[in-house]
Amino acid sequence: MKKTMVAYFILKVLTAFSLPLFLIITYDLTSSAIYVGIVSFLLAFGDIVGNVYWYKMSRRKNVFLLSYLSFISLFLLLFNKISLVLISAYLFSFFNAAGYISLLHSKFFRKKPKERLAKFEKFGGIAYVIGLALGFSIKLISYFEIIPLIEIFALISILSLYKTIRREVEKEVSKGLIAIEDFIEKSPKGFSLLISTIVRSLTLFSFTFFSLRKPSKIKFHIPYILFFFAAGLLLPQIVTVIKEKNLGDIWVYFSYFLGSLFSLLGYQIIQKTRNSKKIGVSSLFLRVFLFLSFFFLTILSGIFLQISIIVFKILQGFTWGVLLVWFNYLIIKRKKSELGINLSLRSFSSSLGNFFGGFLFEFNPLILSLVSSSLIVGSIVLLAKKSI
Questions:
Q1: How many C-beta neighbours within 10 Å does residue 138 have?
Q2: CB 260 within 8 A of CB 124
Q3: pLDDT tens digits, one per residue of 76-102
Q4: Fewer Cβ in 10 A, N or C end of the chain?
Q5: Calpha distance 220→386 (Å, rounded)
Q6: Has this prediction a pTM greater than 0.90?
């Protein structure tokens, strides 16, 4: 398990490094906030579909290794075609989800699940921050040189795991389960199964909505849907602002780094505080102010813009850490059975926000600020009606 966790650490580091790279390359190719939003949507949606698909496959051994197929898709970025960037974004997040899901269903978490899950998430969070910190090196080398390096490190990680799973693979081979002729015979069926499973998973959220026919259940989820849709609308467009103002790619990584670092601080503070309601409500109102101030990022320049981005990302990361824990606490406290559905709806609403945010930014950044902040206000009002 130690080798697997080390491989997972490398996976998270490489993932954190790669995600901002998609948005950087997208803007370089298109100079369009719309495409930045669409790529953000595909990264989020591929992760959602991947979670559904790999959850069904999680009982099978060695699913974790498939997460490294995500890094093979990065080669598509080297062709400098936006159509290939879109395909790569979806494939990257779809396969990347296999690592996280397979580990959650491993035997490692059967004993002391709460303690081990907490350590696991903290472990992944630290790896993510390290990956973003490595992004500062983008000023030194181009992504044409970075992508092959990512592939090499991913390959090394796979090879380090091979010794762990080799015996299992050899048993399968000796039984003739993966003989070449058998593979040729079954591969069309396997391919059709893969396609059909992905198609079914794409309709997951329509089925989720149909299962929420009772108005009381739908109302319960709306405040959270509004909040995550608002976040999805606005946050990816920070990259657009940075690129439009020619601050450099290092600022993209720096902004992600600050957000992730201070979200860890938010997690710790709300876990230690006794009055979670007070800090949760304060964070919601801070988000309203924050999203309203986004418009000023588009009109500032120089040192004032840099300071504003730093403050924005610190507050955004901190409030994210606080609200993520607080929302989960509220749901578990009121309707624990709805947590799974709520998490799915959050992810889906956030990804939809990513998609439409670019269109609003291109239309008018002020409108984007007003719409996103208004949605947060709506979320606060609905939560207040439920006596938060």
A1: 19
A2: no
A3: 888 889 999 999 999 898 888 887 777
A4: N
A5: 9
A6: no
CA angle 358, 327, 263 (to 5 degrees): 65
Residue closest to 98 by CA, chosen among 41, 131, 150, 51? 51
Architecture of the domain spanning 1-202:
Up-down Bundle (1.20)
**DSSP 3-state of 217:** helix
Note whether 201 and 344 are within 8 A (CB): no
Dump pLDDT digits (tens) for 200-217: 444 544 444 444 445 457
Under 8 Å CB-to-CB from 21, ≥6 apart: which residues?
77, 135, 138, 143, 146, 147
What ranges do the domains of the chain cover?
1-202, 214-388
At the fourth CATH level, the homologous superfamily of domain 214-388 is MFS general substrate transporter like domains (1.20.1250.20)
Q: Which helix (H) or strand (E) holds 264?
A: helix 249-272
Which helix H or strand E contains 79, and what residues bound it? none
Tens digit of each residue's pLDDT (9 = 90 or more) over 309-325: 999 999 999 999 889 88
How crowded is residue 140: how many other Cβ atoms within 10 Å of its Cβ? Answer: 9
